[in-house]
Structures
1.
Amino acid sequence: MACHQRSASAPSSPRSNNSEVEQQLQSLSATISATVDIDTTCDGLKKLEVIYSCIDKMICTPGNQVILCQTQQRNAVEEELGRSLVVLDLCNAMQESFMELKMSVQELLLALRRGEDACDQVKSYIRLMKKAQKQFKKISKKTVSDDKDCRVMMQMAEAREVTISLLESTCGLLSKQIEMPKCSLVSKTFQKTKFVCQEEKLRALESSIGDLQTGVEFLYRRLIHNRVSLLNILSL
């Protein structure tokens, strides 16, 4: 759970930035396609932050600024600004969901300590996950990629798609942490309404949700920074 650390650095030259972005996007896309866990997802969020940092450096190079100021590319910049709002909305929605999920897990832990029936808390967690997944699908439908001629804009579009895929996979991972009637954290006892939850694993889940929340928060800040760089292009 290392989302709190931000030690990765981006290369400085435009050419190395291009290479770094392409390699990182390919690697991250392959990771998302494979079976991932929460730790891998946290690492993916850190990689995305580095990717967007590399892209931001490319946007700010004089050569790319000249290209992006051209009429055709300015239109692409405006379109990407619109789509960047969708990703920001997704990050906001995810952060709100993480807060609600952490509270749900905390309530579940409290119920267990008191020896109370935890069925309602489990159902609450599941309802929150379904709500998050439904909201995610609603927001993510608003973004559609178009063909772009400029390399940096193509990479921005690809990074956006990878970001959406990673956030979507996060919803899927969290939804599987607590299920009814069988799952890794909750198991039925002899009474149908009784569940025995492993406190240690629930605490680990609470910590994981916190790490994911931190990772999305850092990513959100980086996306804001990239958006400012694009807005500066339009003001030239």
2.
Amino acid sequence: MSDYRSINRANWDERATAHAASPGYRVERFATDPAYLSEVVRFDLPRLGDVTGLRGVHLQCHIGTDTVSLSRLGARMTGLDFSGVSLEQARTVAARAGAEIDFVQSDVYRARDALDGEFDLVYTGIGALGWLPDIRRWATTVASLLAPGGRLFIREGHPILRACDYDRTDDVIALAEPYFEHVEPQVYDEPGTYVETDREFVHTVTHEWNHGLGEIVTAVLDAGLTLTGLVEHQSVPWNALPGRMRQLPDGEWQLADRPQRLPHTYTLQARKAG
């Protein structure tokens, strides 16, 4: 197993300030509009339901825009991330937004030791699971954090989308990357990042993993949780296949040609027995 934590942390540490300054994260909007919610959280409002008064933790929270959004919906939130620089930005975002949120630095697998008590809601947003090598260990960690009757809520990029051949420019959907979890990581060396910025980066290598949808569901069930919802979506919050996607009115992106061919993202919900 590679030293993926150090490699990936260097990548996220370097990008955190660029992300906070990018218009893609709309940090200024959080500061000026007390009702503003991130597009990711707003997309899932019909499935998220009322979170008022719930004690929630956002795993792999990055700079905290989704965490702040959940706080604005009434949850008492904690954010957790392994990047100290990301958490510095998250604390600034929360302070400017007027949100009282605790932010804790920890690798997600060590979250149980880093956090006190149990939670009514464990939330994980887009682009998180691909940084973790072992989906079963993740699910076990989630179960350990949940209070009886507590809920897991996750929206994530679909593993089929993550397995696509990103270099194609025609209308053929081809799979080039692993769909199933495997021991060795997928190693990428990408100079930029997924939001608009003119920054140049030094730490460009990342180690990532895909996890099949069946593997994710099975891990959640084996951790003792009950699956309560699984919805596959025909849109994704970023331009995942450049040159082949169109932007929708809600800010999401969709395959331009016959989007029903491809599951773009999914929302999964599960509960711990009460």
3.
Amino acid sequence: MGLPGAGKGTQAEKIVNEFDLVHISTGDMFRAAISQETELGKMAKSYLDQGKLVPDEVTNGLVKERLGQSDVKSKGFLLDGYPRTLAQGEALDQTVKDLKTQIDQVVNIEVDPEDLVQRLSGRFICRKCGATYHRIYNPPKVEGICDVCGSREFYQRDDDKPEVVRNRLAVNIQDNTPLIAYYQEQGKLAKIDGNKSIDEVFAEIEKILKKFDSFKEL
């Protein structure tokens, strides 16, 4: 878990490689179900084609379908991007109970929302050639001039504008707060400082996961 820009995807990739887990992201799961034309995949596609959010019951059903597959049973799994709400968390608990498995640990990567605004709203694009830059992490070599074509004209996508990013973060905080409390009450929540380097964050996660018997020898 973590807000947009906190580094969930980067850490998920490192975790599944280190611990040989099946990586289950909602995006990949939707794409697979749609391409295989499963009943739930068709339902998900009908909502996505209309630009609507996929309802919880469809998402929950897809997760249950995926967690019941043989690779998950033999290797264990990491969920990335699910659950996002308390209702999804409660549905997941019922799913793992039905499948006679469990959620061992919930990792929440914490970064101050204003720091995330800087991370997420710093991107801008050359209007002439489309080269992408970031004010902090990847600025042009000469300020105000595109490295690729020499243009001085840049623009920022609406999705990257600070006010849009702040609104996106606010929605995520509203959804995540009850879910974080839910897992904290279960004693399954590990809070990780996401302001550290990628390797430092992973070292903290690795230390937590190696407390579990199945990972101690890895």
4.
Amino acid sequence: MNALTFPPLRLTDPAMFGRVGVLLGGTSSERNVSLDSGRNVIEALRSRGVDAIAVDGIPALALALVEKRFDRVFNILHGHNGGGEDGIVQGLMEAFGVPYTGSDVLGSALSMDKIRTKQVWLSHGLPTPRFIALDQASDVHAAAAELGLPVVVKPANEGSSVGISRVVEEAGLDEAVALAVRYDGQLLMEQMVVGDELTVAILGDQALPSIRIVPKGQWYDYNAKYIAEDTQYLCPGLEGEDEIEIRRLALAAFRAAGCRGWGRVDVMRDRSSGRFYLLEVNTAPGMTSHSLVPKSASQAGIGFEELVWRVLEQTLPGHAAQEHSHA
């Protein structure tokens, strides 16, 4: 199952990349994670001789684009509203003709909207938990009754487990909604899948080994993701046909959402039925010490520095990642 083969690196001379702007930080709710990711990316690029500079946030990016300060951008800006995963910075870079890593405008904007991503998946016959989109006027108790408890309530446009509540009893619904409405956009209520939490990294046109996440506590929340040191990551997360199937499903989900280059697809596996359910796509995944894409790449024989280099290579003309954007 781990016999993934990767093409040889296209460049060996770091000077061929020119100057690389590493877009990080920003003003989204995921700023701190992005700063950490960005520091790691810059360190990895510089260790291989790439001329990489930090660019903190969208206003700084806009100024640098006007002043033609770099030749390409490694986007590691997380989230939206000042983050780099909602299509806005992609549109800005397209307008200036500067190549950048990751998904294009459509793939980024769609993936940031969990509701519309799920609608696209359903149109492709891909499995995702039953859900109801909520707005301020919605009757959350009626929605929970329709789906059946337990449910998950979350903002439709946030990442990193921001604003998410798992509601097992009806008494917890109002508090869950009060937390989620702190973030703008629609809310999403979905049936909670009880089972294994898995994630599959995508690099180019391949799904890397899955990771099964086993938090010490009951849930894989923000603390378990970024702070706790006792979360277990089992890679590969599954065996045999199950591992083949989750990778196939993740790649299909990534492509259906119009994504390209690299990313991560989060999946739940129902404990009672063994069925997989797609949750969301991350188009600029974390690259911190706790992050999952580097763990998965390492299992496939790709170290952190090589991973960063391969992602940056996707900004070169004629790269397959740029041609898969609407496959």
